[in-house]
From TrEMBL:
The chain crosses the membrane at residues 12-31, 37-57, 78-95, 101-120. Keywords: Cell membrane, Membrane, Transmembrane, Transmembrane helix. It is found in: Cell membrane. It comes from Romboutsia lituseburensis DSM 797. Its main location: membrane. It is a multi-pass membrane protein. InterPro entries: ATP_synth_I (IPR005598). It comes from the Bacteria. This is ATP synthase I chain.
Amino acid sequence: MHTKLREEVNYVTKGVIVYDLIVMALLLITSTFSKPMFLGLLFGTMIAILNFRLLAITINKSVTMPASKAQIYSTSQYMLRMLITGVVIFVSVKAPYLHVIGVAIGLLSPKFVILAKALLIDKLKRKEA
């Protein structure tokens, strides 16, 4: 994997862990922390990190392919990631030991980390320069 891509994946992964710790602290403060919520958050986060890493691998591999093959490969990998997410949501709805909202928060964690980086950190860096 390209170094810059690996650095970005590692950055987002670390950010997701920090995000989860903040979410757990908020859940403790609001007294909504429970074992199913914790397990749901953990399960959703693990799948979100897996999906993000699969996306990075797909991007890294597809840039070396011809355009037509890259499009087919990227689309098939996208469908695989969506299938994984669908199965995770289905399992979280059916399993009594997983809280659906916890899973959803975990699944959305990379998006929140990337948005926070774009909105907060990058703007601060631009103001300093």
